[in-house]
Prior knowledge:
Elements (H helix, E strand, L loop, with lengths): L2 H7 E5 L14 H16 L4 E7 L5 E13 L6 H9 L10 E12 L8 H14 L8 E7 L3 H6 L3 E2 L9 E7 L5
Parallel strand pairs: 4-5
Antiparallel strand pairs: 1-2, 2-3, 3-4, 5-7, 6-7
The structure holds coenzyme A.
Amino acid sequence: MTREEFQARCRVRRLNIGDSIEIFDCHDEDLNDFILNEASFYRNALLSVTYVVEDKSSEEVLAYFSLSNDKISISDFESKTEFNRFRKHRFVNEKRLRSYPAIKIGRLAIAKSVQHQSIGTYLLEFIEDYFIVDNKSGCRFVTVDAYVDAIPFYIKNGYQFLNNNDEDKHTRVMYFDFASLL
Ligand SMILES: CC(C)(COP(=O)(O)OP(=O)(O)OC[C@H]1O[C@@H](n2cnc3c(N)ncnc32)[C@H](O)[C@@H]1OP(=O)(O)O)[C@@H](O)C(=O)NCCC(=O)NCCS
């Protein structure tokens, strides 16, 4: 799907309090369960905000993602040396903070029927625009606990591993630096 086709066919909508989604299948039970049963509880408790991608004509939910505030700080690294390495090539001395503001992609899922058609890529671009253009607060990075199977997708979109101490896990922490787009 080209970007123009995506924009013509789909709309991205913030899930409102009380909205319920009846049908969604991305072939991952946890991710299905979240949008079908959990998203509104997280929204009501101010823990995450979920956005759905709908087909404008059928109103079918084709994808969703949820976002929460996050930070990148020294506790994310194996040692202070590693944290300093992360900070050094990005920030001059006076901007070396103890932690940096970030947004976390808590969940991201594309319906099985439309996977591999660039929708995931367009959603990462949507998030980039959302936090750079008309941003309401400072937010330098995007983070995600990436499923191992989805790592190639994030790498293709410019994400990097935060550290090497989670190599054996079924998810790995990855990040994207918004400043790379300025
Ligand atoms: C991973 C996922 C978000 C990618 O979104 P997408 O719209 O299908 O991906 P795009 O078309 O924008 O990008 C294509 C790349 O994504 C990856 N990809 C595509 N479908 C995938 C799938 N089913 N599983 C894993 N990776 C996939 C591949 O690296 C692909 O590159 P290639 O064409 O060179 O093989 C989506 O397939 C999905 O929702 N998978 C199931 C749930 C999941 O893993 N969510 C991520 C949680 S961290």
